[in-house]
Each structure stands twice: as C-alpha cells, then as structure tokens.
C-alpha cells in the first residue's frame, strides 16, 4: 500500500543518553551499514513488547452505521517498522489487541483470528483473564520454538485530540502531577500485566519504546486533522518522513516489573502448561506504584522529545547518531503476493458458504 499509494521514509534515531539508551556496542551490533559505512538497515532482537505514543488516527469508511471503525496510522507505520527491523521476518509475528466485536467481521475478522490477534472487551475486570490466556499461549510458542514475537501496546489507550486532552488533564490533577504537553499520560495496568506475563517464559524479552512524530503537524495540533485516509492513500499526500526514536530495555533487568518468583506466564504455575488453567496473580500495590512512576518518567522524556521535534524537527539531540533512513519499499517485488496469502482463500470460502446457503 505504501509503495503504490503513499511513498515515504522511516527516519530512525536512537536514544544514547536517557532512559533505555543504546550503548555504542549495541549500536554497532544492531545498525547494519553498507560498504561505505552508511546506516541502511536494522538487526534488532526479535522477541519484544513494542510501546509507542499515538499521534494520528485515520477515519475509515463505516462498516456499521452506529459504530464507525477507526484506523490508526500509528499502527500501520509501527508494523512497517517491524518489516525493516530484522532479517528474521518479525513482521509475520506481530500481535495486537482489538475490540472483541471485530472478531467476527467477515473475512477480515477471520484473518485476525488466524494471526492470533488478541480480542478484548475493554473492561479490565473481564479482559485480564483473556489477556493472561492469550499471552501464555504466545509466550509458550516463542519459548519452545524460538519464533519472533512482537506484541504492540499503546499505553495512552487513544490518541491526542480535543476530546482526550481534557481527560488526560483531569487524570493528572487526580493523581497530583503535571499533564504532558504533546502526548497523553500513559495508563500502566495492561503493559505491566503483559510484561509480567511474558518475562518468565522469554529470558531475553526486550521492551522497545518508540516515539513517533510526523512533520507538518504544529505544536498542540492534532494529527488526524492533517493526515486523513483520503489524503494519505487516495491523494498520495503521505508524511514526507515518519520520525521514530528508539529506546530499548532488557525487561528483567531494566524495567521494574516486580517480583516474579514462582510465577509462570500470566501467573501460570510452571507445572501447568495448559493456558485454560491460568491462575491469575494480583500485582502488589507497592510494585504497581513503582512501575507507574517509571512509565510516567519514560513518557515525560518522550514528551520532551516531542517538544524538541516541534522546535528543531528532530526527536533526538543533534549530537546523537546514527540516523537510519529506510524508504517504505518492499525488498522484493514478489512479496506483494504475500498480502493475498490468507485473504484470497478466506474470501473464496466465504463466498462458497454464501452460495451453498
């Protein structure tokens, strides 16, 4: 889609000073250079949880008049990043959370089930068990078979807009802290629970933090007012570059997720290998408070980066290097057929069922 209708470039920088900073040795290992020494690609760890800020929402045509769906451009470009971040096909093992009602959308919903997306009711009381079951299954698969795993979460829960900005300010006032200027305050419960669920099964689990910014959006502006579904994919007016600033943490040593002694994935006993027998474990209040503070500090540095971007056009300080610029293009033209690997058979099966019915 990007190749044909919305060509752009990923402009990737790396944290070298603050939280989640890359060491020079890590940069030498993860940044792939050509013969001339120019950064051209990435080779990052392949089992990680990806978190990011929301910036842009695209309004999509309604499939249901009462509840028009929304497509987030941030998800789109995050998925594009996974295609370029490793030669090991990480983009084929991306898992996201979606509204439970989307599970049964014809063809598309079946595809999302096939790819093991996680469907939630958006009520923590009912979602926590489902999340534990699904993450336990993904963790076991990554543990036993060594497959890549990318679980994407947006701790803000939604994007910055005229409706969500007051809610973020109200939440900040409630807990007695300052609100962010350019992004929303993060909610930590889902992320904390997910990291505690996956870390026991994946010894080298990483947390990859992504700060995303799009040129042309003024300070305090709302991205969806500048980039729409029509402008990006129908009029060809895509962001000239998608700026992405990366931080990376070793979950077990660099993230305060708390004491995991005696717990398996999602609070599952290590002697219990079946996901349907998940035993949930509440997170102690003191451990939750520590994680909350850590995540808010991370988000404050992210907000500072957005302030810098508004002033200078760069998320990273000028002295930081390297910068990897990757055009949004397929490595091989024949890969375009991959887009139809599931949907053609599913579409044929759906139409055959309608004809027989």
TrEMBL record:
GO MF annotation: an example = acyltransferase activity
InterPro entries xrefs: Plipid/glycerol_acylTrfase
SMART domains, per database record: PlsC (SM00563)
Specify the Phospholipid/glycerol acyltransferase domain's residue ranges: 48-192
What's a BP term from Gene Ontology annotated to this protein?
phosphatidylinositol acyl-chain remodeling
Gene Ontology cellular-component annotations: endoplasmic reticulum
Name the UniProt record assigns to this protein: Phospholipid/glycerol acyltransferase domain-containing protein
Per the UniProt entry, what species is this protein from, by scientific name? Hypholoma sublateritium (strain FD-334 SS-4)
């Amino acid at each position: 889609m990007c190749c044909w209708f919305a060509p752009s470039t990923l402009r990737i920088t790396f944290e070298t000073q603050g939280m989640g900073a890359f060491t020079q040795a890590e940069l030498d290992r993860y940044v792939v250079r050509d013969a001339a020494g120019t950064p051209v690609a990435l080779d990052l760890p392949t089992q990680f949880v990806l978190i990011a800020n929301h910036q842009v929402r695209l309004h999509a045509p309604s499939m249901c008049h009462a509840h028009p769906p929304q497509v987030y451009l941030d998800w789109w470009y995050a998925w594009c990043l996974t295609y370029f971040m490793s030669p090991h096909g990480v983009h084929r093992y991306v898992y996201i959370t979606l509204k439970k009602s989307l599970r049964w959308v014809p063809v598309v919903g079946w595809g999302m089930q096939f790819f093991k997306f996680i469907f939630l009711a958006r009520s923590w009381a009912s979602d926590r068990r489902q999340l534990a079951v699904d993450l336990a299954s993904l963790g076991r698969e990554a543990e036993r078979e060594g497959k890549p795993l990318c679980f994407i979460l947006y701790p803000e829960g939604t994007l910055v807009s005229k409706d969500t900005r007051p809610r973020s300010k109200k939440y900040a006032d409630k807990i007695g802290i300052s609100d962010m200027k350019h992004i929303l305050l993060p909610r930590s419960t889902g992320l904390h629970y997910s990291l505690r669920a996956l870390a026991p099964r994946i010894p080298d689990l990483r947390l990859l933090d992504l700060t995303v910014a799009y040129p042309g959006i003024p300070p305090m502006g709302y991205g969806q007012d500048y980039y729409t579904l029509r402008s990006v994919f129908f009029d060809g007016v895509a962001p000239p570059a998608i700026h992405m600033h990366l931080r990376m943490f070793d979950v077990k040593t660099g993230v305060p997720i708390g004491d995991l002694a005696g717990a398996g994935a999602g609070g599952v006993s290590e002697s219990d290998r079946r996901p349907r027998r998940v035993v949930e474990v509440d997170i102690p209040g003191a451990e939750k408070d520590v994680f909350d503070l850590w995540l808010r500090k991370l988000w404050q540095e992210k907000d500072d980066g957005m302030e810098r971007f508004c002033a200078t056009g760069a998320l990273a300080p000028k002295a930081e290097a390297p910068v990897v610029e990757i055009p949004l293009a397929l490595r091989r033209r024949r890969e375009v057929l991959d887009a139809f690997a599931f949907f053609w058979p599913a579409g044929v099966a759906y139409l055959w069922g309608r004809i027989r019915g």
